[in-house]
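Postdoc handover notes: sequence design on the structure in folder B. Input tokens:
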């Protein structure tokens, strides 16, 4: 479904990605793990058109999307939930969700998707009229995922969904990620600092260090890999 080949991204003279390659098949959850600054978020931002690639190719559903404008990539069926959530803090929960559907014109379908989001995250229904900036971190993460789902994506990219969230809500968020993948048949590319949880719910994983893919395998194999255990799983 997604193929990234020899992708290089530079910020000025500094290379953030050094020719990484990865693939994600339809229906999978694939995770990128690595330390802070390894280039994981940059990879997602390049796929979604937020940063330009200097070299390499990105293909989605068999069509090239390298360096397309972000709104065109959303139209192709890719949604990106960024690190830090980036909700519209001064808008209500409902208004934030409607912003996620800005490319859609099917009012009945939008209402059905909103009902699905509220069924998936009941707390959002309870806070439908509440200003989003007053939500807890976990609730804001639910809202950011819900807003992405409003665009009816085929492919969902999640950047650090557990960051800054109470442990009890982290469990809920990861359960919902699996549910969205299984029930809505949405393919997911996950960047997550919590390697234990990421490898628990994903099918395959890529380990990125200093802008390079150094290892990739099935998640169950990565969990028992001595190099991964030592660096990312606490021994």
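Designed sequence:
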């Amino acid at each position: 479904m997604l193929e990234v080949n020899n992708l290089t991204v530079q910020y000025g003279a500094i290379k953030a990605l050094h020719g990484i390659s990865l693939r994600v098949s339809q229906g999978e959850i694939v995770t990128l793990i690595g330390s802070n600054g390894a280039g994981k978020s940059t990879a997602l931002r390049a796929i979604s058109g937020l940063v330009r690639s200097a070299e390499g190719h990105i293909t989605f559903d068999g069509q090239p999307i390298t360096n397309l404008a972000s709104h065109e990539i959303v139209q192709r069926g890719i949604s990106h939930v960024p690190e830090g959530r980036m909700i519209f803090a001064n808008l209500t929960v409902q208004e934030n969700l409607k912003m996620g559907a800005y490319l859609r014109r099917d009012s009945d379908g939008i209402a059905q998707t909103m009902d699905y989001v509220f069924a998936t995250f009941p707390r959002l229904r309870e806070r439908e009229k509440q200003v989003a900036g007053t939500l807890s971190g976990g609730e804001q993460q639910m809202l950011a995922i819900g807003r992405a789902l409003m665009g009816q994506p085929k492919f969902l990219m999640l950047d650090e969904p557990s960051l800054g969230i109470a442990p009890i809500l982290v469990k809920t968020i990861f359960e919902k990620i699996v549910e969205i993948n299984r029930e809505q048949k949405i393919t997911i590319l996950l960047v997550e600092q919590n390697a234990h949880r990421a490898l628990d719910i994903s099918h395959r994983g890529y380990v990125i260090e200093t802008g390079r893919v150094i290892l990739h395998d099935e998640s169950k194999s990565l969990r028992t890999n001595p190099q991964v255990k030592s660096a990312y799983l606490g021994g």
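Context for whoever picks this up: The chain has a mean pLDDT of 94. Don't rerun without checking with the PI first.
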